[in-house]
Specification:
homodimer, 82 residues, 2 helices, flat
Chain lengths: 82, 82
């Protein structure tokens, strides 16, 4: 009975590991796709370093906006403004 | 005409940026999913640090195997063994 239990646990661990590995593969696939887009842009004459910088700036702006919205929501909730 | 050309180029750059941003979002989504799996595993009593170590070891083993296979293929091709 203990053996059977251990096997179930081993099996569960294996499933967790395999799930993560599949997702890591998926993430790697997307990362490769991103690299391909940069390659394509580069082949069309775009400077990819500047593009990466641009994306970083847009992301920062988006985060700032989200933070401001979240703060506003928090303050609105605090004073019961719905 | 020059204006129109500039607009097309601007549009193309915008499309490249948006494609990368969508993919970055996708990558972030997968990364979040991976974190969720680790959380689930942790809640079932697994040590996630050890799990990460295990995945690293399996990956290294896989890379080694792939490298060995690639070398073998190269050497086989070199001596005309098909």
């Amino acid at each position: 009975m203990a053996d059977e239990e251990a096997t179930t646990t081993d099996q569960q661990l294996r499933l967790f590991i395999e799930r993560v590995e599949r997702m890591e593969e998926e993430k790697k696939g997307v990362a490769d796709d991103i690299r391909d887009v940069y390659s394509e842009a580069k082949s069309q004459g775009y400077d990819t370093k500047t593009m990466r910088e641009l994306i970083k700036l847009r992301k920062m702006a988006a985060n700032d906006r989200q933070e401001r919205e979240m703060l506003l929501e928090t303050y609105k909730a605090a004073i019961g403004l719905v």
